[in-house]
Amino acid sequence: MSINVLGMFFRLDILTSIIYNSIMFTPLFTDGVWNTSFKTDLKNYCDFIRNNDTGRNVSNVGGYQSKNLNCSDPQLQPLILHIQKETLNFSRLFNMTYDSFKVDSMWININGFKDYNRNHQHPGCLFSGVYYISTPQNCGNIEFLRSNGRYMEYDWNIPLTQWNNYNCLNWYLPAEQHRCYIFPSFYEHRVLPNLNKEQERYSISFNVVQV
Question: 142-168 pLDDT, tens per residue?
Fold first, then answer.
């Protein structure tokens, strides 16, 4: 069934959905992940750091995580400038009054077969993120976990027609070469295991603060 509205015909179910979403529904606590693409080749740089730095264990289970990088290193400047510019763009959605941001820390993650990163957050900053340098097939996506997911999992164990951002307990974003994700630092997240037996996944994680 269709209805004529100002000379335009709408299916009744679509019109009902439009009215419901624009009048009867009030979104709360809206945020998300800023998604950009930037091409720079840092794989050899990562290998050099790994060969000269024993690294550390923080959230990683297996694999290699470097100590904090030297953010004044010339090889990192193109990526740092991109991150700082895109963080400023992202901050506008939150009505922040800051005019600039700076990358406060960065580190390398290299995950081989079955290596992964446990659930964690990034305290002490406003935004965090990851830049993917090399992402072979099945190398492990990043997964964000809903902050109230434990309560939803207990009471909302209900049948659904499909998952969406209203009902899901977690959300996956693909690990894609040259993809840069920036997100609020309070987002709990983890990295799924690299299931590629032949190739490692290379990425750089970072924290951003206001200037």
Answer: 999 988 877 787 888 888 899 888 888
